[in-house]
Design a protein that fits this description.
By secondary structure, this protein is of the alpha/beta class. The protein has two domains: 5-268, Alpha-Beta Barrel (TIM Barrel), CATH 3.20.20; 317-389, Arc Repressor Mutant, subunit A, CATH 1.10.10.920. The chain is built from 17 helices and 15 strands. A nine-stranded mixed beta sheet has the order 7-8-6-5-4-3-2-1-9, sandwiched between helices. The protein has a three-stranded antiparallel beta sheet with strand order 10-11-12, with no helix packed on it. Strands 13-15-14 form a three-stranded antiparallel beta sheet. Helix 1 (32-44) runs parallel beside helix 3 (78-92), helix 1 packs across helix 11 and helix 7 (177-190) packs parallel to helix 9. The longest helix is centred in the middle third of the chain and has 17 residues, at 227-243.
């Protein structure tokens, strides 16, 4: 059995980016200590808290990945971060070769902070760059610049943190095909180990998304590229990164050989992971559960020593098969049909033959030997494929 991963939610930010649809905000700094106390209590009291939510969990230790996301975990004072990681090590027996990832905003990184992170065991930093073009960054409320990003790379590498991932968003306001290429070229010059490239999400959970859906002009909503342009940006990024030696290993993720994100692969491969904090999700191989996405509610519940879990579900056999399909297909290598038959006792081609044929005819799915995978065009229509497989 493969070791699980640990996710820690730090939902605090200095400012809320217009495109962000996570349960993070510029919460008062005065709440941070209270939040960290509650987070630590949730970790140490997890078994009785899960039992309150009728979750009977067979917890496997040690865990070999820890991921601090948010929010902006790089805002944590170095001593608080160190205390949190020490607690996690004591509770989950984290081996020395584990992957410890900290999400960071470029303007929050200094040589002193980077050195403190490395001393605490952080060996991977995921930076929310999004763009290297100043007009695009300011349009969505980001405070850094291309020079800030370059300085951050230098500080991290000086501290001994070589595993650096960057996020980019295709479809930001004011973005053009040339500015998109310029952003990627600028980052390639810095040679990160990993890229995550996302197409702009438009939904009611972000300020920008709401304004776009209402055909408004606030937050530069009228300056968003068209859907076709955004798709073209994504295709161009795939080509640029492949030519530069990056493996396109998951729909949105690219890595130098051997530098894939070990923690995130657990999500796509059905390996258990346990999340703590606001909006954190967990999976133990059979059950999925999620914490409240409200900071106020989380703090109130924790003060009463109650479980923050607000939703849980035990997956039946059909749901497990569906999840294996659509999560496994997110990986560009695809899914092994023989392994699915071994794990579940059924051939997925028999269960989903109509859907497989339909998507193969569209040019979105292809079978190569034992593996079923998305094609390059299928990556762009992956949501349609996944929806069809679980309809």
């Amino acid at each position: 059995m493969q070791n699980p991963g640990i996710y820690l939610s730090i939902p605090f930010c200095r400012q809320k980016c217009t495109y962000c649809n996570f349960a993070s905000a510029a919460f008062p700094a005065s709440l941070l200590d209270s939040y960290l106390r509650c987070l630590s209590s949730e970790i140490t009291s997890r078994i009785p808290l899960w039992a309150q939510s009728e979750l009977s969990i067979s917890l496997q230790t040690p865990a070999d990945t820890v991921y601090l996301g948010g929010g902006t975990p790089s805002l944590l004072p170095a001593p608080r971060l160190d205390e949190l990681l020490q607690l996690v090590r004591s509770e989950f027996s984290i081996p020395k070769n584990s992957e410890i990832t900290l999400e960071a905003s470029p303007e929050n990184v200094s040589p002193e902070q980077a050195a403190a992170w490395a001393a605490s065991g952080v060996n991977r930093v995921s930076m929310g760059v999004q763009s290297m073009v100043l007009t695009e960054l300011r349009a969505v409320g980001r405070m850094h610049s291309a020079q800030t990003v370059s300085s951050t790379f230098a500080a991290l590498r000086q501290a001994g943190i070589e595993n650096i991932s960057v996020d980019l968003i295709a479809g930001l306001p004011l973005q053009t095909s040339q500015s998109w290429r310029d952003s990627i070229d600028s980052l390639l010059a810095l040679r990160p180990t990993h890229f995550s490239v996302y197409m702009l999400e438009v939904d009611e959970d972000s300020n920008l998304g709401r304004e776009i859906l209402r055909s408004g002009n606030r937050f530069h909503a009228s300056d968003i590229p068209s859907e076709d342009q955004i798709a073209d940006f994504f295709i161009a990024a795939c080509e640029q990164l492949r030519e530069a030696g990056y493996l396109h290993y998951e729909i949105s993720n690219f890595a130098l050989p051997g530098m894939e994100c070990r923690h995130n692969r657990k999500y796509w491969e059905g390996i258990p992971y346990f999340g703590f904090g606001v909006e954190a999700h967990s999976y133990d191989g059979t059950n999925r559960w999620a914490n409240t996405d409200s900071l106020d509610e989380y703090l109130q519940i924790a003060s009463q020593q109650k479980s923050p879990v607000v939703h849980s579900k035990s997956l039946n056999q059909k749901e497990k098969i569906e999840e294996r399909l659509f999560l496994g297909l997110r990986q560009l290598a695809g899914i092994s049909l023989s392994r699915m038959e071994k794990d579940f006792g059924v051939n997925p081609q028999n269960l989903f033959s109509d859907q497989f044929q339909e998507f193969a005819a569209c040019g979105w799915l292809v079978r190569e030997g034992d593996y079923l995978r998305l094609t390059d065009s299928g990556v762009l229509f992956s949501n349609e494929v996944f929806a069809g497989l679980i309809s």
